[in-house]
Amino acid sequence: MPQTNTITLLYGKGGMPLRIPAGATILTGQHIPALPDARQAVADALANPIGSPPLADLVARKRPKAVAITISDITRPVPNKLFLPAMLDTLNAAGVADGRIVIIVGTGLHRPSTADELDVIVGSDILRRVEVIDHTADKPETLTKVSDDPPVSVCTRFVEADLRIVTGYIEPHFMAGFSGGRKGLCPALVDLKTLQRFHGYDTLADPRADNGILDDNPCHTIALTVARTVGVDFLFNVAITRDRQIAGIYCGDLEQAHLVGCRQVAEWTTAEIDGPFDFVITCGGGYPLDQTFYQTVKGMCTALPALGAATTLLQVSGCAEGVGSAAYAELMLKWAGNWRGFLADIQANRHETKLDQWELQMQCRVLERIGVEKLWLVTDGIDPDTQRRMNLSPILGDGPAPTRAQRAIDTYTASHPNARTAIIPEGPYTMLRIAPDDSK
């Protein structure tokens, strides 16, 4: 029997252990240690920011009557409970009472937060202290126009605040290069039309809308332009370890602090490869990211540098909440078995971006490389009939997802004993790069 190693992929809340060939390449970034004293590190960062006066000094200078803090929604594992109390205490000490502070969950076009999710995101103590609301991109009465050309509207509570703080965390992002920074404002707090432009056909057809790229990335440019127009007084971004602990803090000036964080995250998360593999196994990033297939697309797109025309990609994902929004599910089913027709349609109607079409457009990057037959999905969260209509090849049959995934690996390995196999245990949190050829 061939020798194997057991590797655990991020999957739901518990992970998915899988046996892989002993010679398989494990693609991960560096081991990132957690900060030894996160709370002290938060205090130190607030007092010694990058490219900005300390938060306390900013408050003293601006003497704000209203402060708005934007945070990520449940799809992002940001350790808000570790840094929000220190931020609120700093504001209080500078004379801003809790009643003058609003925390805005930057939902973008994601569904509203549930009460239980708000407790997970910020905790009951914060909910008792300050007002916490969701952004509502589809409600014009909650938005204020900040630009006419192009037209952009932003959450009114954020625009009208005297002190504006953006928080979040930095990771590789399959469209915008990196998350964090300006993304805490756009797409998090903008109107539907701006969201559609940010995710439009031409934006995502640009090859520079990709992991790790900021220069001339149209997603980054759109988001940064909006953030500059509105004005952000203070950024608080973190990098996190695999078990969601704080590894780095980048706060202060929106652009300077974010760039420092992006450079460090790139160094930490990059895995170099020498070319495509025959068989690649990846995941959707585990809870909370892999709760929908919509978010799962990030994992398969992140694997693209490792995919050649003959590669088989095995994607595992929890998808406990199913495909995603109703609009996304409807779009997927409409174009079942006809992804090329979908691409032709959105290209022909490039000035009309349908809700959530961008995620299927990104999936098509993978389909253009390897085709439907070689894009395998293992999940327990979506019914088999729907899976068969999602422009991929579902791994179905007896047993739960881990059993079916293992069976698929064993079957492929038995029929391809000399295959070059790679596994990406952290899925979308690992950025792949082709190693430079030193022989040239």
Written account of the structure:
With 440 residues, the protein is of the alpha/beta class. It folds into 2 domains: 4-28 and 271-434, LarA, C-terminal domain (2-enoyl-CoA Hydratase, Chain A, domain 1); 38-268, Rossmann fold, CATH 3.40.50. The protein is built from 16 helices and 20 strands. Strands 3-19-15-16-17-18 form a 6-stranded parallel sheet. Strand 15 (277-283), helix 11 and strand 16 form a beta-alpha-beta unit. The longest helix has 16 residues, at 254-269. It is globular and about 70 Å long. The mean pLDDT is 95. Pfam families: Lar_N (PF09861), LarA_C (PF21113). GO terms for molecular function: lactate racemase activity. Residues 277-427 form the Lactate racemase C-terminal domain. Residues 11-210 form the LarA-like N-terminal domain.
pLDDT averaged residue by residue: 95
Largest beta-sheet details: 6 strands, parallel
* Whole-angstrom Rg: 22 Å
Q: Can you tell me the residue ranges where pLDDT is under 50 for at least 5 consecutive residues?
A: none
Per DSSP, what share of the residues sits in E-state strands of 2 or more residues?
A: 15-25%
Total beta-strand segments: 20
CATH structural fold name of the largest domain? Rossmann fold
CATH superfamily of the largest domain: LarA, N-terminal domain
Secondary structure category: alpha/beta
Count of distinct structural domains: 2
- Tell me the name of the CATH class of the largest domain: Alpha Beta
- Outline type: globular
Q: Strand order within the widest sheet?
A: 3-19-15-16-17-18
Helix content estimate: 25-40%
Q: How many angstroms separate the termini?
A: 41 Å
User: What is the architecture of the largest domain at the second tier of CATH?
Assistant: 3-Layer(aba) Sandwich
Total helices: the number is 16
